[in-house]
Design brief:
heterodimer, A: mainly alpha, D-Maltodextrin-Binding Protein, domain 2, B: alpha/beta, six-stranded mixed sheet, 9 helices, 33% helix
Chain lengths: 413, 298
């Protein structure tokens, strides 16, 4: 056991001071800081668009549309300027649109309506024009049908569906699906990223030790299992440190923002600072178990190749499994208690992400949570045992990559 | 007998690397472990240290399986050297010391001591990748012996070292050996083995060929090497049946003396060819024994 810590400490110390690690940590910090300010910038630009008043010219061939249009603009578009010209003046109108930088020219010849826009890519303004044109048309038609404004409102009345989960406490456990989904997505993405980032670090670390031949010195002194867990713990500690730094960055930025009076951060970041402790505990549990499970597979992969350049081929295979878990978790969002979600939340390859998603979005039965944990734990032990065997054979095997059949034969022998 | 290798057999796929190999080493001995390339030396050493498990046989230290001892018992320098290139020299040695079962404090003291002994003081804070190959080799050697183990197994410890550093290492090995360390040394440099080792084990194609005290082995072969220098005709020996030329040196000729040949008769023959200025009967060198036992047709 003592050797595991000697090995883990070496891995941790030698990497924590290395350039790539410091750079990824700093880049991550920048990304998180950027993310928490990005909504603010977007808001700023969006409001800049909104403040630009609508300004266009209308030619009403029907002779009955314009009053309705003027009414809707007056109600919904403060500062909006629409000007009606009589049919026949189109060419001067076009010239004025260009000269005065107006939005465009609206041609109404019911039932057809066309808009000649100065800038066809200005979707924001054009969709506003479309919106008021449609409203005007509705009012015009309502009047033709003899509907009163009250009848018109009744026709378009909408009911907001009020969702309450059966069995939930009165209001206390009310779920906001969107909030939950954003949070789940964010945290699952973190698990996904950690598995790939640090899993690859484990695999390439093992392959480096193999190709630099230091492995033979170590294997004479330390059991393969200890070597493997030393590597996993060392890299795991690096990951934990990096994630702690990133989360601390997010929290600091959130606190700073409210201190600066910029309001709470948007999206997943704000949610992260308000995660209930129980969820955080689940997150840490699945994060750690998932990492141990996949790291042991990555370690075995690193032990099978003899050159660092070959690691990618093996890593890609393992990463595909992780991606499968990620997508399964994503699909489970739409139906957290569906069959796919239930099955993938039990299989160790996918369960760290899927079961965690279900814990956020739905209340999975305790039996399923327990089964998922037991299976994952069994997977961790089984994976470690299996990888330990491969590790023992692989670390001294140089030359060509062994085939699956050769590995199977070595494991028996 | 401190180390006993008993009937060890190890197969890889369909190749038998080591075949029912048995030998033993006394405590405090310095053993030359010899064999041509591919003889199974590395496999044997790996089996001794428990890096690979043999298909049959066992390895005992003081009557107990060697694998039951902790890491402090032995030090192993594999033929393929390897260090972490990014680590600092002193950090690396402390790490290797800890792997060898020393505490952090002990490892620091020992590392300092051996850094000075191997004259690496000025490189103490340098990263391994910044060192020359010879110095890396010295670092690795220190990593093998800094915990002053009871058993040292060294695979080609002199390769890559200049004469000055070879001498340094030789002295360190002799010193440790005098303090009671059992040393197993594998080398292709027969002169160095002859200089250092009293005992040898020679294997070939996984089989034991020769085992024992080097002096006894030489003696048992008899004074079967004849060196003659004659001022005059150098081809006089071609008339003597049964005399095989081993080597033609600038200042003398070296022959194998087959049993039954009378040295005096050869001397007379040589005297007939000219002035004999050297005529001596010597024991074969380790090099000759090696070539004879595992050479072509062996």
């Amino acid at each position: 056991m003592r050797m595991i810590f000697v090995l883990a400490r070496r891995d941790f110390m030698s990497r924590v001071k290395s350039g790539p690690y410091i750079i990824t940590t700093l880049l991550g910090m920048l990304v998180f800081i950027g993310l928490s300010f990005a909504p603010l910038l977007l808001d700023y630009f969006a409001s800049a668009f909104d403040e630009q008043p609508l300004d266009f010219i209308v030619v009403d061939y029907s002779g009955e549309f314009f009053p309705f249009l003027a009414e809707v603009v007056a109600e919904n578009e403060p500062g909006g300027v629409i000007e009606e010209i009589q049919p026949g003046g189109e060419s001067e109108a076009f010239q004025r649109v260009i000269d005065e930088g107006k939005l465009g020219l609206l041609l109404v010849d019911l039932p057809e309506i066309a808009f000649a826009a100065l800038d066809g890519s200005n979707y924001v303004s054009i969709s506003r024009v479309e919106n008021i044109v449609n409203q005007s048309l509705t009012r015009l038609n309502a009047q033709k049908m003899g509907l009163s404004p009250a009848q018109l409102n009744a026709l378009f009345a909408r009911a907001e569906l009020q969702v309450r989960e059966i069995g939930s406490q009165d209001g206390a456990d009310e779920r906001d699906f969107t909030t939950g989904a954003v949070l789940a997505y964010f945290m699952i993405f973190m698990i996904y990223m950690a598995l790939i980032l640090y899993g690859n670090m484990v695999a390439s670390g093992v392959a480096e030790e193999k190709s630099s031949r230091i492995m033979e010195v170590m294997i004479a002194k330390v059991k393969p299992m200890e070597l493997m867990f030393g590597k996993i713990l060392g890299v795991g500690a690096l990951g934990l440190l990096q994630f702690s730094i990133w989360i601390a960055t997010v929290l600091t930025v959130t606190v700073l923002r409210s201190a600066m009076g910029l309001g709470p951060a948007a999206g997943g970041l704000a949610l992260l600072s308000g995660v209930p402790p129980s969820l955080l505990a689940w997150f840490v549990l699945f994060f750690i178990l998932g990492f141990f499970f996949y790291a042991s597979i990555f370690a075995a992969g690193g032990a099978v190749v003899s050159r660092v350049e070959d690691v990618n081929q093996i890593s890609t295979l393992v990463m595909m499994l992780i991606m499968a878990g990620f997508f399964a978790a994503f699909v489970s969002f739409t139906n957290p208690n569906g069959q796919l979600a239930v099955i993938t939340s039990l299989v160790p390859f996918t369960s760290p992400m899927v079961m965690f998603a279900r814990l956020i979005l739905a209340d999975p039965p305790a039996v399923e949570i327990a089964a998922s944990l037991v299976l994952l734990l069994a997977g961790v032990l089984g994976g470690a045992w299996f990888s330990g065997k491969i590790y023992r054979i692989g670390v001294l095997l140089y030359g060509k990559r062994p085939t699956v059949r050769e590995i199977a034969r070595y494991m028996r022998g | 007998m401190a180390l006993v290798v008993q009937n060890v057999t190890k197969r890889f796929r369909d190749v038998t690397a080591v075949h029912e190999l048995s030998f033993s080493v006394d405590r405090g001995a310095m053993l030359g472990f010899l064999g041509p390339n591919g003889a199974g030396k590395t496999t044997t050493m790996r089996v001794i240290l428990g890096i690979i498990t043999p298909d049959a046989g066992s390895v005992l230290w003081d009557g107990v399986p060697l694998t039951t001892y902790g890491p402090r018992l032995f030090g192993y320098l594999p033929e393929e050297r390897g260090l972490y290139p990014k680590m600092r020299l002193d950090e690396h040695l402390v790490f290797l010391g800890r792997l060898n079962g020393l505490s952090e404090a002990e490892a620091r003291v020992k590392a300092d001591h051996w850094i000075e002994r191997f004259q690496l003081g000025e490189y103490r804070k340098k990263r391994i990748e910044e060192l020359s190959k010879g110095n890396q080799q010295k670092v690795q050697t220190i990593g093998t012996l800094l915990h002053e183990p009871e058993l040292l197994i060294l695979d080609e410890p002199f390769s890559g070292l200049d004469p000055v550093n070879s001498e340094l290492l030789k002295n360190v090995l002799l010193e440790l050996n005098q303090q009671g360390t059992t040393v197993i040394l594998s080398s292709h440099r027969m002169d160095q083995v002859e200089e250092l080792c009293e005992e040898i084990v020679l294997i070939h194609r996984g089989h034991l060929v020769l085992e024992g005290n080097l002096r006894d082995i030489k003696r048992s072969m008899g004074r079967s090497v004849l060196r003659i220098a004659v001022e005059g005709r150098r081809d006089f020996w071609q008339d003597i049946p049964g005399l095989t030329l081993l080597a033609e040196r600038p200042d003398y000729l070296e022959f194998r003396l087959e049993p039954g040949l009378d040295p005096n008769q050869i001397l007379a023959q040589a005297a007939g060819a000219g002035q004999v200025i050297r005529f001596e009967l010597v024991e074969p060198s380790l090099h000759q024994i090696f070539v004879e036992r595992v050479g072509v047709g062996a």
